[in-house]
Write a structure and sequence with these properties.
heterodimer, A: 113 residues, mainly beta, globular, B: 108 residues, 6-stranded mixed sheet
Chain lengths: 113, 108
C-alpha cells in the first residue's frame, strides 16, 4: 500500500499565482485533512473532510479552498498565493473522524515570493 | 497559553539513556496522540491512547486523565530515535490540537 500520497514535494510560487496540492489515500479512510506547519507553531488545521461529500473549515481556512473529489482524493487549492502562505503542508487521513490514528503524507514545502 | 504544551522543547541524550517527553493539556480530551516527525519531514503516528499505558518496542506512552498529563518514554535510546516528537489532544468534537514538538537528539 502507498498510504497517503501527496504532490508536489516542493513548489515555488509568485504572489498572486494559483496552485493545487493533490492528496490521495489507498487505505479506504473516510476522513481526510489538510494541515500547515510553521516554525514555532504546532500543526494547524486548514480544512477537513469528515466523510466523502463533506468538507469543513478548520482553524486557518482563509485563502484556501478544498475539494473532496471522491473517497480517495482530497485537494487543496490556493487561488491567489500570498507570502503568508509559505509553509509546509501536510495531508492526513484516518479511518473515521474520531479517535483513530492519523496517517500523514510526506508534506509539500511551499514558498511564495 | 497553548491548550497543549510539551516539555522540554529540545532534548539531547547519549545513546542508551532513558528519555521522557512530557505533554500537558488544559482542556478535556477523548484521546491523546503521539507522533514522530523524521528529520526528512515525514510524520508517523506512534500512539493513540485515552487511558493507562501503551507500549511498542522501546517506546512507552502513559496518560493521566485526572492530571491532564501524558508522557512518552524511550528506553535504551539510539541515534535513530533522533526526531521531533509531537503530542496532540483530541477533543470530543474530534478536533486535534497539536503541541509545538520536542526536538530529540541522541548522540552515539
Amino acid at each position: 500500500n502507498a498510504g497517503v500520497t501527496q504532490t508536489p514535494k516542493f513548489q515555488v510560487l509568485k504572489t498572486g499565482q494559483s496552485m493545487t496540492l493533490q492528496c490521495a489515500q489507498d487505505m479506504n479512510h473516510n476522513s481526510m485533512y489538510w494541515y500547515r506547519q510553521d516554525p514555532g507553531m504546532g500543526l494547524r488545521l486548514i480544512y477537513y473532510s469528515a466523510s466523502e461529500g463533506t468538507t469543513d473549515k478548520g482553524e486557518v481556512p482563509n485563502g484556501y479552498n478544498v475539494s473532496r473529489l471522491n473517497k480517495r482524493e482530497f485537494s487543496l487549492r490556493l487561488e491567489s498565493a500570498a507570502p503568508s502562505q509559505t509553509s509546509v503542508y501536510f495531508c492526513a487521513s484516518r479511518y473515521r473522524q474520531g479517535n483513530s490514528p492519523l496517517h500523514f503524507g510526506n508534506g509539500t514545502r511551499l514558498t511564495v515570493t | 497559553k497553548n491548550e497543549v504544551e510539551q516539555s522540554p522543547q529540545n532534548l539531547t541524550a547519549q545513546e542508551g539513556e532513558f528519555i521522557t517527553i512530557n505533554c500537558s493539556y488544559s482542556v478535556g480530551i477523548s484521546a491523546l496522540h503521539w507522533l514522530q516527525q523524521h528529520p526528512g519531514g515525514g510524520i508517523v503516528s506512534l500512539f493513540m491512547l485515552s487511558s493507562g499505558k501503551k507500549k511498542h518496542g522501546r517506546l512507552i506512552a502513559t496518560i493521566n486523565i485526572q492530571e491532564k498529563h501524558s508522557s512518552l518514554h524511550i528506553t535504551a535510546s539510539h541515534p535513530r530515535d533522533s526526531a521531533v516528537y509531537i503530542c496532540a489532544g483530541e477533543t470530543s468534537g474530534s478536533r486535534l490540537t497539536f503541541g509545538e514538538g520536542t526536538q530529540l537528539t541522541v548522540n552515539p
